[in-house]
């Protein structure tokens, strides 16, 4: 999985496309449907690049939050939307890959109903605990969980939060209870409030809590350490052999959107994602920018669907 990310990074770095605007597009704001709550990575990211997008196209990006279980509502809404380029989905591993394996029947088809525009980011996740929990390392958490079987609660606001912890439980042989949320930011608030003991989450969601000392990061989920947190070990370095996980985000339009409109959206979004403001933000948050062509994103999603089949099997999750 990570090797594929690296190939995309090399592809994206070969050159930035010039912005090519389809005739008459856009003439009004472009709505971006996110399937998480306000304050989530999807929300912050889209608002961040919205300024540059507006400068390029003359129209703003408007974030529309449709938080729901596994993103079914927002994804279905965009899949059914008019294919004119004015409604986009900021999809990711949950909506575009995991749901294929986590649901017996989906109200949309990620490959048939949605048209790729560009990948945006690959996001290593953080394993974090409440700062008042007597846990200073991943091994401490494993030992604590084994001493208190079934007593630990963790929050999951999306499939990433669900599967990343399920993978930890499987590989480390621990027991803990999942508490589902509509979004990771809500789960993080409950973690700080003491209703949960730990979670695995996007760095941006818990950044302020970590800086305030309310949450303690224990490890990063990827095979490589984060440049922004060089002293934080990977899960494998911390003793969980074979552990590797990263989430991702990308922009999608309804299938049937004209090619010239897809090109306009792609060029404007890639330009915004490569802006200095976005670059500084990604570095600060430990996020990895990865932009692609629509064709490469199609291949990436197909690869991710296959990868998630393996992850769901390892985590022993049954489709609903």
TrEMBL record:
Coiled-coil regions listed: none
InterPro entries named in the record: BUG, Bug_dom1
Keyword Glycoprotein among record annotations: no
Signal peptide: 1-22
One protein family per Pfam: TctC
Keywords: Receptor, Signal
Top-rank lineage group of the source organism: Bacteria
Similarity comment: Belongs to the UPF0065 (bug) family.
PANTHER family per the UniProt record, alphabetical: BLR1237 PROTEIN, TRICARBOXYLATE-BINDING PROTEIN
Name the UniProt record assigns to this protein: Putative Bug-like extracytoplasmic solute binding receptor, TTT family
Organism of derivation: Advenella mimigardefordensis (strain DSM 17166 / LMG 22922 / DPN7)
